[in-house]
Amino acid sequence: MFGEVYPAQEHDEHMTGEPWLLENMDLWTRTPGWERYEACSDQDCEALLTRAARAVTQHLGTPPERTVLSDAAVVAGPAMTHRIWRTHTHALILGPAADNGPYGYLTHLQLSCTPLGCAPELPPAVDGDALTEWITAHVDW
Fold this sequence. Notes:
The chain is of the alpha+beta class. It has three helices and five strands.
């Protein structure tokens, strides 16, 4: 699962960043299993995360241990839901992730699978700061 929220600049008639980005996305969508949706809203992205969460829950046979709304401390961009599952050895985190590329303003939607060794215990649900740090430690690439 992967997606990007690309912030269109509504006052840029030429969309100078669009042609090269669309060419790259065309390459991705030729890969089996990839789909492309354009002009998506935050709600469309959240719906995609919900569909992916159902698939992960079905595969693991258990619902996520935590479901939290992200904020600017986790990822730049619109607030979206993170869902966290843990197996005996790995953390699976579904949600938005920061763009570590040259732009820094794209929002990636991803399913991360990280060894639990970097932080096995989930902080309490009421400790938002600690949970933000835990998510970041597991999804930031």
